[in-house]
Amino acid sequence: KPFWLKPFWLTAFSAHRFGLLGPRTHRAHGASRVAMGFQLPDGFGYVLIAHGLSWISNMYLTVQVVRARKTYGVKYPALYAPPGHPKGEEFNCVQRAHQNTLENWAPVQVLMVLNGIVHPLFAATCGSIWAVGRIVYGHGYAKKGPSGRMLGGLLSHLGDFPLLVGVFVAGAKMLRTA
Q: What does pLDDT average to in each consecutive run of 10 residues of the chain (178 residues)?
């Protein structure tokens, strides 16, 4: 069929258009494809596994917030317990642990991927430490209040600070080898 007879969504959102099914096997005579080569280093799969661990950490903290909403009676759409709520402090500690993780999650993931291009095992190790640290942080904050977050916070920073330094090291290494 000519393209104007196909439904719009088939043309605009086809899997081939976005490369989800790989290259097309048929090409017009003389057609070419410009490709940019980029190869991830051996061991980059560990970075993906560490990224998956961060999702598990986030889901753990999300479930803790959902349970705390039921336990303490804090209704949506309120992000935190309203002032004067009898169990407001307890709920807010659970919610704050999750929010703090969300505030740091994207930067840590970007640092992990950037480091992983040059040093995949280092990046995966730091990312995994960070993910475990977030669970410890959330658990401690929920059980002991603000003072309970210190161990998890320290553990998390043992993962994220090296990633921050590592991105500069990786950048310098790439510039030296260019």
A: 52 52 50 62 96 98 98 95 96 98 98 97 98 98 97 98 98 90
CB 79 within 8 A of CB 155: no
pTM of the complete model beyond 0.85: no
- What class has domain 44-177? mainly alpha
**Residue type at 115 in one-letter notation:** N
Q: How many helices (H) and strands (E) does the chain have?
A: 5, 0
Measured CA to CA in angstroms, residue 60 lies from 23, 125, 138 at distances of 39, 20, 9
H or E, element range at 99: helix 88-118
